[in-house]
Write a structure and sequence with these properties.
Largest interface: A-B, 45 and 42 residues
Helix content of chain A: over 70%
Strand order of the largest sheet of chain B: 1-2
Chains: A mainly alpha (about 300), B mainly alpha (about 290), C alpha/beta (about 250)
Number of helices of chain A: 15
Oligomer: heterotrimer
Helix content of chain B: over 70%
Distance between the termini of chain B: 43 Å
Strand content of chain B: under 5%
Largest sheet of chain B: 2 strands, antiparallel
Strand order of the largest sheet of chain A: 1-2
Number of helices of chain B: 11
Number of strands of chain A: 2
Chain lengths: ~300, ~290, ~250
């Protein structure tokens, strides 16, 4: 654990040098990559550790973005607005988790697919608060230069990455993480051994929500303008899964590595083929599930090939 | 009298929903696979009917006869080629697999047909049937009756035919069925094929009421899911009851809360059912 | 503590129209080894599932150590000291043998996460004879070893009551003898045991009392020697031809 923490500190310190390059392009790309990192690590709590594929990332992200934006609209300072967004996502995850996670995986998985759609519908109709389909403008930060603004949001995301990583590291090496591993391997057996499975799953779900909610709020402040289809985009959920599958859910650096790899691919390859973007993502998921189970091993150990290699 | 009309609308809608959910429920119940592709299959069936009618003049109701074997073959091949390799994997993994496949299919449809909503309009229209105070467009009524007939046919297939009994046997006890000489892999593929058939065949029927677009796939998937939770998993009668119930609830919901909240309403319904009666309205506890 | 450790009153469990367990009243005194027998499909495993909360009772009450546990979830029952083994063994396959036992110790046994749980797990593994396998993956163990692992997990849960569901199924004669010795040793620690068993040899040599289920109903209970002569029991087994000889020969 100490070794992982040390590596992370060095890594984050290196990343912190990016703004000194002075290139706006790299700064923007870096901020996006850090945001993806938060999303991937967050999914890992529920999808990797507990083995429950959640499609709720988009819901948390949008909820956070709108909470932060509305809070800022009412004059809350940015930092406080971001905190509110995190808390809103946390509370929402708790309520949703208690309703859905008492049951086994399938109900949860599909219901989480629908929930972003539901929130979008609600945001769309609460026109007075959210601007509805017209979107919502955020106050422009009071920083002197555009460069300073860009650097500020880069560091904000980096801070969020550091917090999320710390939470993930602590969870991995704690009783909570151990219990989640038990659930992921065999839920009924875990139940029989005294693991309060509902509590553990809901905790994991809350952890998977809170940082994404904050990332949504930071994103909203960063781009000054949000609209429902933009922040409740189901692709956020899809990307989270792909990134973790790419990087491997087993190791603590897997999600971050997956996020970096994914953004590189996105930047280099798919930008050129926008119209088949989601199809390629789908193909990637199929290939990863079928042929590269290594990243998936923590989702399942009952796979035939996993058995053979032992 | 308004309520009677709303109820009739709901039942028409519900009949179609039964058909959507029956195949999804079958695959889930027998294979323990949650087929995320189901919604896109329905949309694809809708396009088949649309282009069959516009380009070739095939009546949408007749196009079911084309859709059925095509989708059965598609489903059979998918199960044989891909999903059977993962069948021993936990449900959450096969769900992720079909999710990936669905992204591919819906993207392909988006590229081929664009996101535009297309409406299938019969020319000449079939007219309107007035039953006392209740007024129903004939095309919708026929679509609903065909949907219920398809669902009934599935039920008969499962309960009466040889392959149907094999499917039920595999669902009850995989190993025992295999020992009795049932080719389990083949039965799986046939089951998935039947599920796809039901989706593909309900596409033309839904096209009589709803506009067709790749964007509606997830909506249908969500409905199929809610119906399974409502009616209990893995039984055709459950899907039928659940479908009719959802249709009526949506119909009244649209009246009281406005049609733009349909998704929210069924989601709330879903949460309530999961909280108070997780085994479904008809379901038994202890089936997994 | 006065009174029995486990007390079932009128316990029924229905699946749809089928009564898998029907109106069972039973008490298990502290410190005894009770055998639960009956033909296949008699509802033995269901009864264990009802006691542990996997399939909550449809009717009746279950009291454990003076507390009503009828409505408890499996994990709650586990923390109160009810441990069970499974007919089909269920380790966490991708964890080491040690981790499997440590999980039992920390979640049900109330041992602190970390070194404490690890130390205790090693002790239990030594006790069941798996000391050398602590760092192997659980999925790499043979069937007999997995059954031992189940014992170690059961012990790590600090049980007051241990429910053993066909722990000898699939074992050869030598392995059965080893398992028998192990069960005796566990009973010697003062753990109350309820054992589902098909091998009459095992039941007769271990149990102070035998309970017989048939079609979900409790048809007889008493001393082992009286039970094997009980006409209702003989009929229940002989109703299925050859079942009687199979049972007494030990399969």
């Amino acid at each position: 654990m100490k070794r992982d923490a040390l590596i992370a500190v060095v890594l984050f310190a290196l990343v912190a040098l990016v703004p000194f390059s002075g290139e706006a392009y790299w700064l923007r790309l870096g901020t996006t990559m850090l945001m993806y990192g938060v999303i991937a690590m967050s999914w890992n709590f529920i999808g990797g550790m507990a083995g429950y594929p959640s499609f709720a990332v988009a819901a948390f992200f949008g909820l956070g973005a709108y909470t932060g934006a509305v809070a800022q609209k009412f004059g809350l300072p940015m930092g406080l607005a971001w905190t509110c967004a995190g808390l809103a996502a946390l509370a929402f995850a708790a309520l949703l988790g208690v309703a859905l996670l008492r049951l086994r995986g399938h109900y949860f998985a599909i219901a989480s697919l629908v929930v972003a759609e539901v929130l979008r519908e609600l945001v769309n109709s609460a026109t007075e608060l959210t601007g509805g389909g017209m979107g919502l403008n955020l106050p422009i930060p009071t920083m002197t230069s555009i460069d300073a603004q860009a650097a500020f949001f880069f560091y904000a995301m980096l801070g969020l990455v550091a917090i999320t990583f710390a939470a993930m590291l602590l969870t991995t090496y704690s009783k909570l993480g151990f219990g989640l591993r038990c659930i992921q391997q065999n839920e009924s057996a875990a139940d029989m051994l005294g693991v309060d499975t509902t509590f553990y799953k809901v905790s994991a779900f809350m952890l998977s929500g809170v940082f994404v909610g904050m990332a949504g709020a930071v994103y909203a402040s960063w781009v000054h303008y949000i609209e429902p289809p933009d922040v409740f985009d189901v692709l956020f959920s899809v990307k989270a899964i792909v990134m973790v599958l790419l990087g491997g859910a087993g190791s603590v650096f897997g999600p971050l590595f997956g996020a970096a790899l994914f953004l590189s691919l996105e930047e280099l390859v798919w930008r050129k083929f926008l119209e088949v973007h989601t199809g390629v993502l789908g193909l990637l998921i199929v290939l990863l599930v079928m042929f590269l189970p290594k990243g998936l091993l923590s989702l399942s150990n009952r796979l035939p090939w996993a058995r053979k290699t032992r | 009298m308004l309520y009677l009309q709303i109820l009739a609308n709901g039942l028409v809608l519900g009949g179609l929903y039964s058909c959507i959910a029956a195949g999804f429920s079958l695959v889930w119940g027998v294979l323990n696979v949650i087929n995320i592709l189901h919604g896109s299959f329905i949309v694809l069936g809708g396009y088949l009917a649309f282009f069959g009618y516009v380009k070739l003049g095939i009546h949408p109701f007749a196009s079911i006869l084309i859709a059925a074997p095509l989708f059965f073959a598609l489903g059979y091949a998918l199960q044989r080629g891909l999903i059977n390799r993962m069948i021993a994997a936990p449900v959450l993994l096969t769900l992720t697999l079909t999710f990936g496949l669905d992204l591919m299919l819906s993207n392909a449809m988006l590229a081929a047909f664009t996101a535009d909503f297309r409406k299938l309009l019969l020319d000449p229209p079939l007219g309107i049937l007035a039953l006392g105070p209740v007024v129903l467009p004939v095309d919708r009524l026929v679509a609903m009756l065909l949907a219920l007939a398809l669902t009934g046919l599935l039920y008969l297939t499962l309960s009466r035919s040889r392959i149907g009994r094999a499917i039920v046997a595999v669902r009850m006890d995989r190993e025992a069925a295999a020992l009795m000489g049932v080719n389990v892999k083949n039965v799986y593929a046939i089951t998935f094929g039947l599920g796809a058939l039901m989706a593909g065949a309900s596409g033309p029927l839904l096209a009589m009421i709803f506009p067709i677009s790749p964007l509606t796939g997830p909506v249908y998937l969500g409905k199929a899911f809610v119906i399974c939770v409502l009616g209990g998993l893995g039984s055709v009668p459950g899907a039928m009851i659940g479908g009719l119930a959802l249709g009526v609830v949506e119909s009244f919901g649209a009246l009281w809360f406005g049609p733009e909240h349909a998704t929210t309403l069924s989601f709330v319904l879903l949460i309530v059912i999961l909280l108070v009666r997780p085994e479904g309205l008809l379901g038994r506890k202890g089936y997994s | 503590m006065n009174g029995p450790l486990l007390e079932l009153t009128g316990v029924t469990r229905q699946f749809g129209g089928l009564k898998a367990v029907s109106d069972v009243t039973l008490s298990v005194p502290q410190g005894e080894v009770i055998g639960l027998i009956g033909p296949n499909g008699a509802g033995k495993t269901t009864l264990v599932n009802v006691i542990t909360g996997v399939h909550p009772a449809s009717a009746g009450t279950i009291r454990f150590a003076g507390e009503d546990i009828t409505r408890l979830k499996p994990w709650q029952a586990a923390r109160r000291g009810i441990a069970r083994t499974f007919q089909i063994v269920q380790p966490f396959p991708e964890m080491t043998v040690l981790e499997n036992v440590a999980a039992a110790a920390m979640f049900a046994g109330g041992v602190r996460y970390g070194r404490d749980a690890e130390h205790e797990a090693r002790e239990h593994l030594r006790f069941v004879g798996l000391g050398d396998y602590a760092d192997r993956d659980a999925s790499a163990l043979t069937l007999a070893m997995r059954k031992r692992l189940e014992f170690a997990k059961g012990l790590a849960m600090h049980p007051k009551l241990l429910l053993l569901d066909e722990v000898n199924a699939g074992l050869n004669a030598t392995e059965v003898d080893e398992a028998l010795a192990l069960i005796r040793a566990i009973a010697g620690r003062g753990v109350t045991i309820l054992i589902i068993e098909h091998l009459m040899k095992v039941v007769l040599s271990l149990c102070s009392r035998i309970v017989v289920l048939h079609h979900g109903e409790l048809i007889a209970q008493g001393e082992p020697q009286a039970i094997i002569k009980d006409p209702r029991v003989i009929q229940a087994y002989l109703g299925r031809r050859y079942a009687g000889t199979e049972a007494s020969n030990g399969g």
